[in-house]
Task: inverse folding
């Protein structure tokens, strides 16, 4: 009788626990679907309300890009390239799609997805001299911004393939709608609460010229390794650009410091890939004119507005000559 | 194996299913022992030898003390303690001690060279060694009998939920539970899972979200104003709490699913402590009580001298600073806590008189005033805990005093808003727990646990940080 009691108690406990698990799973899936649908709808409306916001730069590039010159890169792109100056000189509409914290993997995904709907004539790519290397810390930061492309995961095979590379279980995480909107709720809701008027600087974000201490000269040791997967990704992206007859230029804006990239194998590989695909290179990274004046910089890696103007005065003639040769 | 990793989410259910399927208590304990060593060896297999060494030393020492001649009990106790502390010293403090000795000798004009001991800090070493030492001292004092079964004792030291970051369990609580055959209890399992989800919320949503801002400020402290440093320091308190309490709740929840009851390690310390004394009764309870029972009370003994009590409390916290890490920042941080407690001890009588005279003890505004003051005192001490160096900590202090009106660095702002939302949830939950005396037990309704669980998972998916890295206390 004691054994029977034990067995029936165990069965009761087992059923009770199974009911809990089932209710939990059903509840989580239900909330996930409902909230996912709500966020999807809200996101579309929010984007249309204010498509040029910095936070939705990727979506703007993929769905609304029309410019003949596209500037691609991270913060060194968004703060260094003055779209209006390039447009006035080249007489080609220009937009700066640079976004802070969005590095090599994001940039490749952006270019591939943008070219599905729109082909610019020129891509100015602030690619980063160490873009082909990887370190554990870098791996984390490079993949962080890829969440901007989660809304396209189901509809775009390149996007899906790339996102699934993020980590082993990424494919399973992407089954959750809420996960796809991780850390995006505020970005989606913001236009409904704040009526932000975005000045039309065509994507360029000026950094202030003063109000802070100008940087000290930065000397950083460079880690040298080549990630073959990144080389393949870059080759693929450049092939797609070539197939669309786009002139690509690798640009390296000035920094106030020494980073030792030029002698590394990764940089030599980058130049080799550029040469193979007929990609032009304009390199101001260690330009002596810029390195002599710290007041052109907000910090060792970013030009302020005055610095950006000074850079454009030198960069644009070089760009014109390069495009004429290509 | 991290608690917030997929490997653990596979490991844990498998352990539970196999554990409850095994018919025999002996087999269950052996299985848990194997699972615990497997769990630990996932970090660095060779360090399991240190765990074995500590287990072996304290096991045999306890047997000798428990059954040996009265004359040698104290000697065996001290040999056991010293051997364990030597293990801790070599793997955690050797390089720090060597650097400081060389610096001191250099200051005295003597050039010397001590080789660097290049080795990774074994995860959880401070926790399991202290747990083993606690057991040994308990046996010496007669609070518990020496455990004869080596495997059961090894399981007590290595029990995987609390092995790498506590709670530091007492033999009087945990060891006896390995002799109880635990029946599968759905209510225990459900409340255990709810505790685990709460722990994941604290870690992924609160700790890792606050860490984004805290790291941005503290890793470039020279570039930031007093207001930014103050905000980062306040958020660091919650980062530390979320990280450590998160781990503890996951550990307690895992154990509860398996039918074990671990001690509470946190009782809402940051929002509800009305004094620094109360803070340490609510925060990292297992470590504080360990130091009180095995360092402070033996030091104080039967002395009635106030100055000796004050000295003992300061020394206890000074040593506790060393436990946290081989760096002067930790020692300084806990010395500040020691100083606070000395002041508390000295003013305790007058404060009680004052409160009694004005009937303040139960007045809400008085309680909240004390809570706010305590929070800022604790926050200040933790500036030294977080700062990368003492220089940075002094700079932070100077900035908070002289440059509080400086520009507030927002770092985009969205991380702060998410952190604020998460902290609001934490505050509301802790307010309910504090005032309604609600605890997570098997007696609560399954419906409540299900709804809480769904809510927590939704919040983790929506505002959790998934690449936040490992728990802070793993480095101790």
Result:
């Amino acid at each position: 009788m004691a054994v029977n009691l034990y067995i029936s108690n165990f069965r009761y406990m087992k059923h009770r626990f199974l009911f809990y698990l089932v209710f939990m799973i059903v509840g989580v899936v239900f909330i996930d679907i409902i909230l996912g649908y709500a966020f999807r709808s809200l996101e579309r409306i929010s984007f249309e309300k204010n498509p040029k916001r910095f936070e939705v730069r990727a979506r703007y590039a993929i769905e609304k890009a029309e410019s003949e010159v596209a500037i691609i890169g991270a913060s060194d792109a968004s703060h260094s390239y003055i779209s209006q100056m390039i447009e006035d000189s080249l007489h080609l509409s220009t937009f700066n799609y640079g976004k802070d914290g969005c590095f090599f993997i994001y940039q490749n995904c952006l270019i591939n997805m943008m070219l599905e709907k729109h082909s610019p004539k020129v891509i100015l790519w602030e690619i980063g001299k160490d873009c082909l290397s990887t370190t554990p810390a870098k791996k984390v930061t490079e993949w962080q911004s890829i969440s901007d492309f989660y809304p396209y995961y189901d509809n775009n095979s390149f996007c899906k393939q790339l996102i699934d590379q993020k980590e082993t279980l990424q494919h399973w995480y992407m089954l959750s709608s809420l996960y796809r909107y991780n850390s995006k709720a505020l970005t989606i809701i913001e236009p409904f609460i704040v009526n932000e008027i975005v000045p039309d600087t065509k994507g360029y974000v000026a950094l202030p010229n003063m109000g802070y201490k100008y940087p000290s000269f930065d000397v950083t040791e460079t880690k040298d390794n080549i990630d073959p997967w990144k080389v393949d990704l870059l080759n693929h992206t450049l092939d797609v650009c070539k197939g669309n007859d786009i002139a690509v230029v690798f640009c390296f804006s000035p920094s106030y410091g020494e980073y030792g990239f030029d002698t590394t194998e990764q940089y030599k590989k980058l130049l080799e890939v550029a040469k193979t695909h007929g990609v032009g290179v304009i390199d101001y990274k260690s330009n002596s004119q810029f390195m002599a004046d710290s007041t052109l910089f907000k910090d060792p890696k970013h030009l302020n507005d005055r610095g950006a103007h000074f850079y454009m005065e030198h960069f644009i003639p070089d760009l014109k000559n390069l495009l004429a040769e290509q | 194996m991290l608690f917030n990793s997929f490997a653990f989410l596979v490991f844990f259910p498998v352990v539970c299913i196999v554990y409850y399927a095994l018919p025999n208590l002996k087999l269950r304990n052996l299985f848990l022992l194997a699972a615990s060593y497997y769990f630990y060896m996932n970090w660095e297999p060779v360090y399991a030898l240190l765990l074995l060494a500590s287990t072996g030393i304290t096991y045999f020492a306890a047997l000798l003390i428990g059954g040996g001649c009265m004359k040698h009990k104290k000697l065996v106790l001290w040999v056991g303690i010293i051997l364990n502390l030597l293990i801790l010293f070599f793997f955690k403090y050797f390089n720090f001690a060597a650097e400081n000795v060389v610096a001191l000798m250099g200051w005295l004009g003597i050039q010397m060279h001590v080789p660097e001991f290049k080795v990774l800090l074994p995860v959880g070493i401070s926790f399991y060694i202290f747990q083993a030492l606690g057991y040994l001292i308990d046996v010496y004092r007669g609070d518990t009998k020496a455990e004869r079964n080596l495997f059961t004792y090894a399981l007590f030291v290595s029990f995987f939920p609390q092995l790498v970051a506590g709670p530091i369990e007492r033999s009087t609580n945990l060891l006896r539970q390995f002799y109880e055959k635990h029946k599968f209890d759905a209510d225990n399992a459900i409340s255990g899972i709810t505790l685990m989800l709460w722990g994941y919320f604290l870690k992924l949503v609160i700790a890792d979200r606050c860490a984004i801002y805290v790291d941005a400020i503290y890793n470039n402290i020279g570039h930031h104003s007093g207001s930014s440093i103050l905000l980062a320091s306040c958020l660091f308190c919650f980062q530390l709490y979320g990280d450590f309490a998160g781990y503890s709740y996951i550990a307690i929840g895992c154990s509860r699913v398996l039918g074990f009851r671990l001690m509470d390690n946190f009782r809402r310390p940051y929002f509800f402590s009305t004094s620094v004394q109360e803070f340490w009764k609510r925060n990292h309870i297992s470590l504080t009580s360990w130091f009180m029972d095995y360092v402070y009370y033996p030091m104080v003994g039967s002395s009635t001298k106030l100055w000796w009590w004050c000295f003992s409390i300061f020394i206890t916290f000074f040593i506790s600073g060393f436990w946290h890490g081989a760096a002067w920042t930790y020692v300084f941080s806990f010395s500040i806590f020691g100083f606070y407690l000395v002041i508390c001890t000295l003013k305790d009588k007058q404060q009680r008189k004052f409160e009694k005279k004005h009937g303040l003890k139960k007045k809400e505004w008085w309680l909240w005033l004390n809570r706010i003051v305590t929070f800022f005192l604790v926050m200040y001490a933790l500036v030294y805990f977080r700062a990368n160096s003492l220089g940075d900590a002094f700079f932070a202090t100077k900035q908070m005093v002289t440059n509080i009106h400086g520009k507030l660095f927002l770092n985009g702002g969205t991380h702060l808003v998410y952190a604020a939302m998460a902290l609001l949830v934490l505050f509301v939950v802790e307010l309910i727990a504090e005032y309604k005396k609600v605890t997570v037990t098997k007696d609560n309704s399954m419906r409540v646990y299900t709804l809480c669980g769904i809510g927590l998972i939704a919040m983790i998916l929506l505002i959790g940080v998934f690449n936040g890295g490992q728990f802070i206390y793993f480095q101790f």
Observations:
- The two ends of chain A are 91 Å apart (CA to CA).
- The beta strands of chain A are 69-72, 94-96, 122-126, 218-219, 247-252, 257-258, 280-283, 297-299, 302-303.
- The longest strand of chain A covers residues 247-252.
- The mean pLDDT of chain A is 89.
